[in-house]
Amino acid sequence: MEKTYNPVEGQRRWLQLFIAWSVFLLPSLGFAQTFVESMGTTATEGQAVDSYEANLGFDNDNEKGFTYTVTGATMPVLSVANASTGSAGPNIYFANSSNTSSFAIGSVSTAGLSTASLTFLLNAPANAFTSSTVAAGNARFRVQLGIGTVSPTNGNITYAYSNLAYTYAPGATGGWGAATITLPPNTVGNPLVSIRFQRINNAANTGDYRIDDVTLSGTATGVVTAQPTSLDFGDVAVGTNSTAQAVRVSGQNLTGNLTLTAPAGYQIREFGSGAYGSSLALAASNGIVPSTRIQVRFVPTAAGVNNGTLVVSSPGVTQAEVDLTGNGTVPTLAATPTSLSFGSVFVGQMSTSQNVTVSGTNVISNVTVTAPTGFRVRRTATDAYTQSIVLTAAETNAGFTFQAVFQPTTAGSYSSAINITTPNASTSVAVTGQADPVPSGPYISVNPNLLDFGTVSATGSAQTLSFSVNAGNLTAPLVLTGSNNNIVFRDASAGGSFVNGPITINPVSGTVSTRTIEVQLTGPIASGPFNGSITASSAGATSQVVTITANSTGNNSVINASGNLNQFSTVPGVASAVQSYTLSGSNLLQDITVSAPQYFQVSLDPNFTGITTTGNTLTVARNSGSDVTATTVYVRFLPPSALTSSSLILNSSSPAVAQGIPVAGTSEPNIQVANAFQEVRNVVLNTVSASQALTINAQRVLQPVTISKILSTNPLNPGNTPQFELSLDNVTFTNSVVLTPNTTTYSINQPIYVRYKPTYLGTAQSTLQFQSNDFSNKSVQSFGANDQLAARSIDVEPTQRSTATVVRNNTTATVSFNLPANYAQLGYGEGRLIVASTNPQLPAANQPLDGNSYQTGNQTYGQGPQIAPGYYAVYSGSNQTVVVDGLDLATTYYFYTFEYNNIDNNFNVSVIGAENYLSPPVPNTIPGIIAPSPLPVTLVSFSAKVKGNQVALNWVTASELNNKQFEVQRSRDGRSFETILTREGKGTTNATTAYSEVDKKPLNGLSYYRLKQIDTDGSSSFSSTVAISFLNSGEVTMYPNPVEDLLTIDLGGSAEGVSAVITDMTGRVISTQKLGADSKLNMTSLQTGTYLVTVGEGTAKVTRRIVKK
């Protein structure tokens, strides 16, 4: 339906829509179109639904009285983008959000439909649904039908929704497609229907949704409706107006206006508007009267039930009816007792007060109590006496007790009535009294002068009796004295405890105003008749005696109560489980009265039949004698709100000692997390951890409990993106879950599942929270224990591995990585960890652990942490060339390199503890220098040279520390050494020192020398080894000569490694060979002739002439 247009363009637009809808509605031919909602034409991009409705932008807001509502943190809005293939105008846009959102069209009437079909256009993401048939309650986009009910209090509508299945046929890439809804039978015939569309919050549900052209078609007839169909106004006083109640009326396909006619005694009007009357007319527009709220009130003019019918009619259609009922009432009043006799008092004095209880029914106005001359009344014991008092209607209907006294101002006999009145009702209490003249001298007056307690037990009296006393013209105090200790009394006017006297009352100006003296008998009282008295006396006045009589049974009155009650537990407004105790008594003068404290109930029936209030009282009757046999008393807790209470159930029967049964109950809800979340570590960025089950235990809960979480701030997460997710089924995870209490036990004992979903590197913390309207704090609040969620993430693992090269330079090694310029983008690690060890293999169990930052030893071997014993982390960082020092010259080292990522790219921050290491490559084996460890002194040089028949040994030190001596050692094979001479060291010095020695008897052939440095503490170290060849010509022999193939050269020592040179007689070198351990020189290939064979080098050479056969 178009809102505004100019005549030409409007007709063209209407024609386009008519053609489009004709095509769209081909499956519905034969149906009268009930409504089409194409979202109007005037919307702006992103306009809020409530704003658009307020401006009457929708097709059916003003025209048919429809309502349009949205819900959700990200609510659907009007959009003019991506127009539909139908009306091609505005559409409803559901944005991609982590919250469920909805759009509903309400106040739709299907009352006049006999058949119905519902279609709409849907734009959904590609592959949103697995087939063209979309299940009811699916996890992506739902369509729901709501059936409305009307509140008689205010006419508001509440919808009960159910999910509907539908078909949807989009294109291959998603987009606009027609959707046809499968409607249930109860769709038709309802005056209030809502159609709701919901985009569901689901981690897998991504993308936007749009709807347009919602169309309800069907076969329609004229109809009027009214809801609810009955109203009950209860009791209403004649001549007054009841509280108004509400109905909703509507009409469709009407040919005339809608008329409402109220029965006699009832009045109607539009809700909150205009004066009440007996009829009302609502104008129809295009045959439609939208759903309209009507107020109805009961105005009784006579007592009795008034049943009538509110008729809703329109020409040519069946009328709708609302049944009305109400009861007109008139008040009644009653007073107990109906008469009071106050006896005799002196003029100017006040009698003892007496009680009058006023009760009423249907009283709606205040009640006035008026005393006649000589009498006065008061509401309570703390009020002053006046001539009249006022009681409220509520007090009167509940029953109210006031007090009356006789206080004459003149002598004579008085007989009159206290009048009790309210509009339309009255009653009275007859009152009499005798006023005597005041005596001229001191006097004392008591009334009555006899108190008979009747039967009492050895324990005492069951009741408290009283007399009044007053005195005048006194010159001394008034003294009340009991005749024995069994009589206890008190001045009730002054309060206080009962005593056995005497009580002294000081007169004021010679007068003691009327006092009420309460009297009890207390044990032990011997069996049989009891006689005693209380004497009122004062100097100069005639004493007055109050005689006290009783008859004692001689037996003690005893109440027995047994049983312990556990704490009661329930929810507000629901009775707790029943507990019980046993009650008995003996020699009782009265039945046992059981009084429950507030919020508790007592009963002799386990079903508590007829008991509706707490703090009630019950009576446990005596048997035909004076005993109470063992009786079960049932107890339960019925709190009106969430509270905790402890008190006593009082079991009393005077004069027996009352027995108290302690009771305690609570209806305060309680909730806790039974087990703690275990911190999750090493979860890779943008993945999810395994879930953990946390058990939620709650007691005394009626309302659903929402579990959510609050995220601790982190500078790497400025948007406060949630890092943890919750689930009820361990399948679908969201930011909050709702737990529903057991409706029988009012408890929750259910697991929720928590998983970690990191979006940044480092630590994440959240605190679980809950919210439930059962708690006094209805806001979100923390659990207080086991509510902490903690986790740590690591970076993604590198996918490329670089191979390091290692170059050894004495005590250092240079580790180099040949990486491209954009190595991190190509999958290489953002950093590298270098581990050095003397072990040639790194077991898999000893490799670096993800999430561990190895703080290295500043590129020095042997310092810093070890990833495993003997494996030192010498470097961690992004450098591509690293020099590692601290190496031993004589030790072979093995280096292992590991790629890792730990940089948060959003902030370019390297996060310690977020390292993710790539599995290591085969270790690079770095050979060491196979030599002894160097001297602890700084050795500049060490040399051995042949000098004639000796070997000159020279060494130079740059500095020495605690150096005791040097030993020069010699070896034939380079493995087994012997000391040949010793030289004293310089102790400690920073000066350069040169040492010279000679080996006077060197070994013939190849030999080895080294230095052994010995500290003053006995520790020692060795220099590098040097080798020399020394030949003594007299000890060198070569044989056989002539030779055919192998020439043996005997040097008188080791020949291994000694050079042997063969030359011809002209000096030309034929070959050069290194002798082996067998001292053999191979001459097989030589021609027959004479050759020169030379062994040794430099001055240590020996030459022999050898003939080759």
TrEMBL record:
<dbReference type="Pfam" id="PF18962">
    <property type="entry name" value="Por_Secre_tail"/>
</dbReference>
<protein>
    <submittedName>
        <fullName>T9SS C-terminal target domain-containing protein</fullName>
    </submittedName>
</protein>
<dbReference type="InterPro" id="IPR013783">
    <property type="entry name" value="Ig-like_fold"/>
</dbReference>
<feature type="domain" description="Secretion system C-terminal sorting">
    <location>
        <begin position="1038"/>
        <end position="1107"/>
    </location>
</feature>
<dbReference type="InterPro" id="IPR026444">
    <property type="entry name" value="Secre_tail"/>
</dbReference>
